[in-house]
Specification:
Number of helices: 10
CATH topology of the largest domain: Transferase(Phosphotransferase), domain 1
Strand order of the largest sheet: 1-2-3-5-4
Order of helices and strands: HEEEHEEHHHEEEEHHHHH
CATH superfamily of the largest domain: Transferase(Phosphotransferase) domain 1
Oligomer: single chain
Number of strands: 9
Largest sheet: 5 strands, antiparallel
Radius of gyration: 20 Å
Amino acid sequence: MNLHPYSTLTPDCALDALDSTGLRADGRLLALNSYENRVYQMGVEDADPVVVKFYRPERWSDAAIFEEHAYTTELAAREIPVVAPLQLNGTTLHTHGSFRFAVYPKQGGRMPEFDRADTLKWMGRFLGRIHAVGAQADFAHRPTLNLETFGIASRDFLRSGNWLPADLVAAWDSVVDHALANVATCYDRAGKVRAIRLHGDCHAGNVLWTADGPHFVDFDDSRMGPAVQDLWMLLSGEREEQQAQMNEILSGYEDFAEFDPRELHLVEALRTLRLIHYAAWLARRWDDPAFPAAFPWFNTQLYWQARILELREQIALMDEPPLAA
């Protein structure tokens, strides 16, 4: 029986890993909500607790991880509220046994209220600051979010693995091809837009809100892509609501960074790519026992029927005019 690599990441192993950095774990360990990596809050003797992230084996190269760390460290140095890794023994990336890990200061906070206009404007200001820095250099070792990497590669992975029930294959193949063709059309309408360094996964779960405003955590999915990728996930509701929300976001964003309104052609296209990529992500991780336990509905008849309907809705949305800047 082939055990998943994370099967050897026992509590003792995790605590020993922290000890190896020179910080002395006091035995308190709390697993945090993370599936791509394994993340724990750990108590430290005579110091504040820390958060330790054990990277999924073979996902990122060391160079790609160091780029993530360098980006967040650069942002933190400019007093932008991101949680950057601690440098211990001269490095931010550590190894214990077969695991690579990083140690972060614990950041408190609550879920932001994206239904509030002032919250959205505040988010826009800080995303503008993040993107103003992100636009100053490119990643060399991290991928770009585009039609190929998130859409076509995900579709092809799902097709090659026999993940769909036989009676839904034809319907899925048709709708996913139609959806990706519409994504390509949206990119054509937008024209040549600039790719910058992004947070990459800027949803409510990766923002901690305090009295001082937002604190951005978990840049693990940081990559190159259009700026609007970090904005559209703040939107919700009907079109009129999303338009009002985008107006608030951009009113704060453009205090610090210029926004190219052509990128609004990509909002529904990027949402479509995320939906397809998410299904492929679950399939790629299905050998990790944590995934069948956490996502028991994946790969069922109802799941794929819902995805087909979802993509049909996205096809219609991509045919509509974009939001206005």
